Amino acid sequence: MPLPSAELDARRATVRAAPSGSVAVVDETALLDASAVAAHAGESLRSGRTSWRSLPADIALVAGAGDDEAAVRRLVAGWAGQDEDTVARRARVLHRDELGAALRPELWSLVAEHRRAGHRVVVTGHAPRPVLAPLAEDLGADELVTTEVEVRDGTLTGEVAGPVLVDGDGSAKAAALAAAHDGQPTFVYAGPSSPALLDAGERPLVVTPRATTCGDRPVLTVAERGGTLATPGDVLRTAGFYGALLGGASAGAAVGLARRSRRQMVDLASSVTGDLGLALAGIDVDVRGAEHLWSARPCVFVFNHQSKLDVALLMKLLRGGFTGVAKAEAASIPLWGQMFSLAGVAFVERGNARQSKEALEPAVRKMRDEGWSLAIAPEGTRSPTPRLGPFKKGAFHIAMQAGVPMVPIVIHDAGEVMWRGHQTLRGGTVHVDVLPPVDTSEWSVATMNDHVADVRARFVATLEGTP
Fold first, then answer.
1. Averaged pLDDT for residues 394-421
2. Distance CA 143, CA 122 (A)
């Protein structure tokens, strides 16, 4: 994910220069621009699981006060008697819907560099293990050193197992890290409030969204994530974008009615929304390999899905002559749902293979008979972080059955201008790589797993900037 910063580039170069096998410790205070404990307390409040005794303290925690040892113990106590898998499942959902949006992309980029350099990545934190486990998994971390919880026969007891790794200066984390590892870590990334943890590494780096000095320790200043609250500028950008969407739909409807062509109506609306909407939102699109958008049509375009903005990006890139696939719930989204229906988008129900096949048949016929292309996200849903999710096989079967090529569209930073959980747009540049068409003429059902793995590997290599 391109992050234009000379300072960050210098940090990447330092990572690459370190020998393979070096240890990089990344603390949650560096990774997240939010409190993971507070996020889980908020989820408990919303779901009605918070006890009346914990209510005042958890409300204060969600409001931004009191993320301390008592807050961790209250959270763990609320899990008493609950199945370990149930708690883990809720943590994954909250990571997907909320905490993923608080992940700092600069740290994601540095962790990816460490992994490419063959370093061992250790995530530390004071939040309980079930809370941070999904984040560590998404990062591809080798180890998680954090507050442990007591489990008996697959059920949480509500007690902490060992120390709560929260204190005034990060000493508890440093002690736990020293107990788990021999020798001094090469790199440590943490917030300015954790000097003891930072001092545990040969090369400490203070990570903060605010310009500050921390003695002689180097500082990496990262961008504010902003949470879900919009600035006035974000509101204006978003209003301009949706105004263009409405205007494009109106213009397309007028032309389509005059020419009695639904296809022309949809194509014009797509082009206007993609060009004007993104321009009014202050979003530029930098495309490499644009020639592949046209050289192999009709085809199946596959793209990685991080943001609600991906639809508008596809409208700008593909212009017209295409339709798509969306989850059944998308049909009820105001304005978007109506546009999707007019464009012949196939609405599929997750987990219903028979309905999905029936819904996709008209799209496959249009590819064969009318030369339309199809755009589909093989991950099936938006990913909470830049990590690429597993690919489903539907798009691959469609390309094979229709006898058309597959064109990968790799979107790098859509999540930075409209992240999961955000309803407003931020200005910026989205970088897109359109890869050469993939020939599907020799594909078969027997070799499908190999083709899925091959195309996904191309996405991974492009996202990570590897050859």
1. 85
2. 5
